[in-house]
Design goal:
This protein is mainly α. The chain has 29 helices and 4 strands.
Amino acid sequence: MSNHAPEEAAVPDQQKEAPANWIGGLWKGENLLMTFCLAAMVLLPLADMVLRSTTIVIRGSSAIQCHLTLFICMIGGAIAAREGRLLSLSTVTAFLKSRLKSAARFFSGSVASAFTAILLVAGYRFVLQQKEAGNILAYGVPIWIPQAILPLGFAAIAVRLVLHSADRWKGRIAAALLAGFILSAALWLPIDPSRMVIPAMVLLLAATIFGAPIFITLGGAALILLWGDQIPIEMMPIRHYQQVTNASLPAIPMFTLAGYLLAEGGAAKRLVRVFQALVGHFRGGPAIAAVLVCAFFTSFTGASGVTILALGGLLMPVLLAARYSERNALGLLTGSGSIGLLFPPCLPVILYAIIANIDINQMFLGGILPGFLLVIAASIWGIAQSPRMAAGEKGRFSWVEARSALWNAKWELLLPVVACLALFSGYATAVEASAITALYAFIVESVIYRDLSITHDLPRVMKECGLLVGAILLILGVALGFTGYLIQARVPEQLINWVQSTVQSPLVFLLALNVFLLIVGCIMDIFSAIIVVVPLIVPIGLAFGIDPVHLGVIFLANLELGYLTPPVGMNLFLSSYRFNKPMPEIWKSIVPILIVLLAGVLLITYVPFMSTALPRLFQ
C-alpha cells in the first residue's frame, strides 16, 4: 500500500502551508469542521451515558452520531486529497524517472478525477431522491441535508485530484479536459455499456498501476460493473451511505483519535523509559522493551505506520547503544511496527467484526492470546540477536528508576485498562467505550501532562486523525458497492462450491488460506482487504466449520504480516523514510523476523484454542 503522493505522504504529521488567500480560508474551514465533528462525536455518547439514568433524552443521538461519521468520511477524504495522501495500491511511481512519473501522475489523476465525478453525479441523484422522500434526521432537520456532504465531498476530491495531476496549470487544464471526456463518454456514449466493460476495466487497471487511489480502484470497478449490467449508478452512494452510517462504525474514529493523542504527546518517551526500566537489564532487554512499547502504541494507532514514525527515532539509539547491529535493529523496529494489531481496541479488529457481522468484544477477546504469542515470538528473536555481554557489562535492575518511570507514566499505562474495562464491563457499548477512551487520552495528554496545547496542537492532531480515518472510510463506503455486486452475482456461492470440490480437509483449506492472505497482504492494505476479501472467505470458513472468531484472527494475523512483506509492505516504505535507508536494505533486515512471525501465524492457524478460549470463557 502506498499513498497517492508517496514522497509527501510518508510523514503523517507533515503540515502543509495553506495559501494566504480564500483557498487558505477554505483549508482552515475544513480543518475546523473536522475538529468539530470529532469533538461532537466524542461528547455525544458521553452525554447519552450521563443522561441515561435521567428523564432527559437526546433524540436521534445514534443517527446523529452515524451522520457525523459520514461527515468525517467525506471531509477527511477531501483533506487527504488536498494533501496528496489518498491511499493507493501501487508503488510503481516511486521507481519512475521524473518525466515518466509526471506522465503517470497526469494519467492516473485524470482517470481518478473522472470516476470521482461519476460518484459525484450518483451522489447528487441520491440526495435528490432523499429530498423527495422527506425523511427527518432529528429535531426537524431533513435527512437530505447531512447527506448532501456525499456529492460535496466527491466534488472537492475530484477537483483536488486534477490539481495534483500536474504542477502547472496547463497540465491541470489538460487533466480536467481528459477527465471531462471520460465522464461524458461514461454518461452519454451511444454504445451498449456491456461492450465497454472490458475497455473500461483496462483503463481503470492502468490508472491503478500508475497510482490512482484505492477508493477509485474499488469504486470504479463497482461503477463499471453496474454500468455494464445497466443498473442505476445511484446504487453506489446508497451502499456507501448504508456502510458509513453503520451504528458500530463511530468507534473507529474515536479509538484512532486516542492513538493519535498518544503518538503526538509525550507518551512515547515515558513508555520507552518504563519498559527499559522493567526489562532493559536482561539480555535482550532493549529489544523486549522495543517490542512491548510498539505493541502498546499499535493497539491504539491501528497499525497505520504511526508507531514506526513516532517511536523509531527513540528506539533506534536504544538498540544501537545495546550493541545490536544496525540491520537487526532495523528489522526489529520495522517488524514490531504492526505487532499489536490483534490487541483491543485496534482499528482493523473493529472493522473486521463489522464486515463479518461478529460481536466486536468477541473479536477483541479472540485476539488477545494470539497477540501475546506474536509479541513473545518477536521478543525471543530480539533476545537471540542480542550481543552477549561480559559479566561486568550486565545491567542491574533499579527499583528507584522503575518506580519513578512507572509513576511518571501511570496515566498512560492505565489507558488500556480504561479501554478494556469500558469495553468488557457491559455498561458501555463499543461506541461509548471508544468515547471514554478518547476523552481519557485527551485529559492525560492535554490536561495532566500538558504535552498538547488545546488551541494549537489539538486541532492539528484531530485533522491528522480525521485525514487517516476519512481515507479509510472512503474506501469502506465505495467498496461496499463492489462487494455488493459480487454477492449479487453469487460469486461467494460459486467460490464455496469450487473450494469444497477442490479441497476436502479443513487443515488444507487453512494452509491455502494462509498462502492466499499473504499474497493479498503483499498487494492490498489491510483495510481494503477486510472490505473486499472478508465477505468472500467468511462463508467458506463456515462451510468448513471454522469458528468465525478464529477465522478473523487468522485473517488479521496474516494481514499483519502484509505490512512487512517485501517488496511493497507499507511499513517497509515508512521504515525506509524514517531511518533514511534504501529499500533493499530494509528488505534484507526484515526477512529473519518475518520468518519468526510467520511461524507464529501458523501456530495461531492450527491451534484454534488460542483464539476461541477467551471468547467462550466470557460468553
